[in-house]
Structure formats: C-alpha cells, structure tokens
Amino acid sequence: MHQPLVFIDGDQGTTGLQIHARLQGRDDLRLLTLPEAERKDPARRSEAINSADIALLCLPDEAAREAVAILRNPAVRVIDASSAHRTAPGWVYGLPELNAEQAERIATATRVSNPGCYPTGAIALLHPLVKAGLLPADYPLSIHAISGYSGGGRAAVERHEQRSDDYLPALQLYGLELAHKHVPEIQRHAGLSARPVFVPGYGDYRQGIVLSIPLQLRLLPGVSAEQLQACLEQHYQGAQHVQVMPLHQHGAAAALDPQALNDSNDLRLALYANPEHGQVLLTAVFDNLGKGASGAAVQNLDLMLAGLR
C-alpha cells in the first residue's frame, strides 16, 4: 500500500515542531523534512515540495507565498499554516466544523489554509449564529482573547522560558492599533459585513486561549440566550472536536481556565447569560498550539489523506 509522502516545510518553528511531534510513529505516511543545511537551499526546497503528496507549510507569510510559487507538480496538495492564504481565492478554509460540507471540501481540496488561532474560536462562535439569522452581520462586535505566550512564536517562547533580568509582564494587550491581521479572516469566515473590534493579549503562561464576545440582547430583538445556545448545540451536534457546554444563566459561574484543553485538538464553547440585564457572553477555550494550530493542521491532513485513498 502506498504511503503518502508529507513534507513539512518549516519544521523548526513552534507549529512545525508540534506537527512533527504529532505525526511521529505513524505508519500510514512518510515524513520528509530537510536538514538544517538544506532548509534555505532553493533547489533542495523545490525538489522536496514537488516530490510530496501533501506539503505542510509552517512558514512566515511571505515565505509561504514563495513556497507556493515554486510548486511545479500539479499533484502536490498543500496545507498552509500561515495567514498568507486564509482569505485568498481558490483556497479552502481549513475549519472542518464550519458547516456540514466543509470536511468534504477539505478532503478533496488541493489548497487548504489552516485557520488562525484566535479566528478559530471567534468564527466557531459567530458563524452559526450569523448563518441562522440570530446575529446580524453588521452587529457591533467586540472580541477579546488571551493566549499563552507561545502564540508569539519561537522568539516569544525563548524570551519567557530563558529568562534574563528583563521585565516580562504577567499580561499584555497588543494589536492596539485595531488592525490585527486576523480581523479580515474573522470577518470573512464568520459572515460579518461590519468589521469587529478585536483586542488580543498574551499571558505569562505557555499555551491555551480564552476568547470572549459580549452581546447585548436589546440589540437583538426577539432573540434569547436559549435560542443562541440551541443554535450552537445543533450546529456542532456530533462534532468530534467541539464541545458545547450547557447554558449558564443562574448562580455563580465558574471561572474559565485558558489552559483547560492544552495538548488536545478540542474546542469548548460556552454561553453565559444574565437575564436580568439582558446580556450574553459567548466564550471559547482551546489550545493555541492544538486546535489553534498544529492540531487543526493534522486534522486537515487526515481528511486529505482519506481523500487520497
């Protein structure tokens, strides 16, 4: 039986290392990575990517575009883990739970763009509600999310884990110019016509995301927290990697731990409501290195490998 050849381009970055670790020991595929001396050799990279059945790009955006440009073999299928192609024509968005047909689209696609970490949680919460007409596409949304410092890549990991005397804050918000590169991706795949406000941050812990989106029911006439909850439950019924927790609207709510699903490919969605004040909080917890990056890439890879058989 043919074992598909999977080339990981950029396997020394945070996402690439995690993907490599998740694929170790599998006997249904062959892994190809380049030794350090050959990683920046254009001829060797071109040979490697054009010999693969599936190429996984774990590269900065510009390098990912360059890798796609050197593809000459039309049989090579690509999963791009960068943000270079997440809104590009001809690329299938790699969130299998987006709708009932998305997993099949990924399985048969030649070009798949892996979702960003923050967009995974935001789109998972918003897309079903917008599609069902419960949330207007032009609702004035604010999205707040805190990630572990590994979301900043290898440099951030080294800065936090090889500490010098430099001051490192326990929490820092960034993207304060309100022009974060993930916003177009969220807007496009959530089905929004108005640009959301997105405020991300890093905490002084390694990995895990907690993301929240507040809603005012007075701006959603005729919509209840129960309807929002039912919509998400229906959308993700039977989804292997998405959990929808029971609606919480009475008594003291438990705190959300951003690290609760670390080292998994799971995504946990929960709604918190205050009926007295007419407010709802949409929340998502997941691993920025799992469902937010390498876990999702392997999930998409498995769908594409199934499509080869």
Automatic annotation (TrEMBL):
Pathway info: Amino-acid biosynthesis; L-arginine biosynthesis; N(2)-acetyl-L-ornithine from L-glutamate: step 3/4
Name by which UniProt lists this protein: N-acetyl-gamma-glutamyl-phosphate reductase
Catalytic activity: N-acetyl-L-glutamate 5-semialdehyde + phosphate + NADP(+) = N-acetyl-L-glutamyl 5-phosphate + NADPH + H(+)
Any Pfam family: Semialdhyde_dhC_1
Enzyme Commission number(s) of this protein: 1.2.1.38
Function of the protein: Catalyzes the NADPH-dependent reduction of N-acetyl-5-glutamyl phosphate to yield N-acetyl-L-glutamate 5-semialdehyde.
Subcellular compartments: Cytoplasm
